[in-house]
Design a protein that fits this description.
CATH class of the largest domain: Mainly Alpha
Structural class: alpha+beta
Helix content: 25-40%
Oligomer: single chain
Membrane topology: Single-pass membrane protein
GO cellular component, one term: plasma membrane
GO biological process, one term: response to abscisic acid
Organism: Mikania micrantha
Number of domains: 2
Mean pLDDT: 75
Radius of gyration: 21 Å
Order of helices and strands: HEEEHEEHHEEEEEEHEHEEHHHHEEE
Number of strands: 17
Distance between the termini: 29 Å
Subcellular location: Membrane
Low-confidence stretches: 1-29, 194-199, 333-340, 344-385
CATH superfamily of the largest domain: Transferase(Phosphotransferase) domain 1
CATH topology of the largest domain: Transferase(Phosphotransferase), domain 1
Length: about 375
């Protein structure tokens, strides 16, 4: 796929729906291309006041001449894989259409500039609600459960329902955006991996993702599959139920590992102790909330085979008559002193286990919980969105 630099245009309206098909050649999609100066003006020259956040690029709020609000993702010029991430995300997102995926409106290329133009999400990202002491009260159980189901449907579409099989590889709360009706939309496909229909898994020497959400087989060996996304989804589901970040669980005076404590609480019949207190005082059924914890624990099991597919997860979330299997103890591999929201980007040699940038030791303990330790990893200095 080649990007041919387009002549400057004066288009300000959204691209035609007829161009957003799965057979579209992104290189000839003239109406997806926006003139750089138009986007620059829409964001007030990428001003600080319009900055929405940072991830693998800075995101700005913008307003086109016709009044349409947009979100513009400006990839960092010094990011080594910037061009490839840009082309990957454009190719994937332009071909995907689902109510639980963020909509790509267009793109712009100008010299070293790479811009992605999305629909604007007025309620920002999910993490800004569930981890905020004041905003979290807005999300009662009904709203949270609808978000939980919406994210699951979006992932199911990526894994099975579109013509392409796509693995996101960085599913987390900050990569779920909320529209005016609090409908969840999965964002940031820059690290997604495209598969042919017959492929089910792969491996890579370039590990990208976020610590606390990363499946152990991916963090340790670079092996990923749709079940890697299932693991990340399980972590996110448990965060939504508990209202706490996945690095650790605040249990009174003590702090415990997030996944381990959730599993022990479920096993001991004390699941109610880990539920967000706000949900306990609402109208949500405690039985249904505990069932959601059960589903989350099934998703984070260490053995890939034991994790359900997203199709099964969607079915379990929508049918309370289905008997759930018993979850085994979840994988636990993240050191407690590492920020779970810290993006991970390093390369390793599959034979020696050494990073091509720095030595990276990833060892597995003999304990039942299969604890992995990560030392001397090369971390890219990005601020999560």
């Amino acid at each position: 796929m080649r990007f041919k630099k387009k002549k400057r245009q004066t288009r300000t309206s959204p691209p035609s729906e007829s161009l957003r098909t799965e057979t579209m050649d992104i290189g000839t999609a003239e109406s997806l291309h926006y003139d750089f100066n138009i986007v620059k003006a829409a964001t007030n020259d990428f001003s600080e006041e319009n900055k929405l956040g940072r991830g693998f690029g800075t995101v700005y709020k913008g307003k086109l001449r016709d009044g349409k609000q947009i979100a513009v993702k400006r990839l960092a010029r010094d990011f080594g894989q910037g061009d490839q991430e840009f082309k990957n995300e454009v190719l994937l997102v332009a071909k995907l259409q689902h109510r639980n995926l963020v909509q790509l409106i267009g793109f712009s290329i100008e010299a070293s500039e790479r811009l992605l133009i999305y629909e604007y999400m007025p309620n920002a990202s999910l993490d800004q609600f569930i981890f905020d002491p004041s905003k979290c009260t807005i999300l009662d159980w009904e709203k949270r459960y609808n978000i939980i189901k919406g994210i699951a449907k979006g992932l199911l579409y990526l894994h099975e329902d579109s013509r392409l099989k796509i693995i996101h590889r960085d599913m987390k709360a900050s990569n779920v955006l909320l529209d005016a009706q609090m409908t969840p939309k999965i964002a940031d496909f820059g690290m997604a991996r495209l598969f042919k229909a017959e492929e089910t898994q792969g491996d890579t020497s370039r590990i990208v993702g976020t610590y606390g959400y990363m499946a152990p087989e991916y963090a340790m060996h670079g092996q990923f599959s749709v079940k890697s996304d299932v693991f990340s989804y399980g972590v996110l589901l448990l965060e939504m139920v508990t209202g706490q970040k996945n690095q650790r669980f605040q249990n009174g005076e003590s702090i415990e590992d997030f996944l381990s404590f959730a599993w022990k609480s479920w096993k001991n019949g004390t699941t109610a102790n880990i539920i967000d207190p706000i949900l306990k005082t609402g109208s949500g059924s405690l039985r249904d909330i505990i069932r959601s914890v059960h589903i989350g624990l099934l998703c984070v099991q260490e053995n890939v085979v034991n994790r359900p597919t997203m199709a099964s997860v969607v079915l379990m979330l929508n049918s309370f008559s289905i008997t759930l299997p018993l979850p085994k103890e979840p994988a636990f591999f993240m050191p407690s002193n590492i920020d779970p929201e810290m993006p991970l980007l390093h390369e390793y040699n599959s034979s020696s286990g050494s990073s091509s940038l720095e030595k990276s030791k990833i060892s597995k303990s003999r304990s039942r919980s299969s604890q992995y330790s990560i030392n001397e990893v090369s971390i890219s200095d990005f601020i999560p969105r």
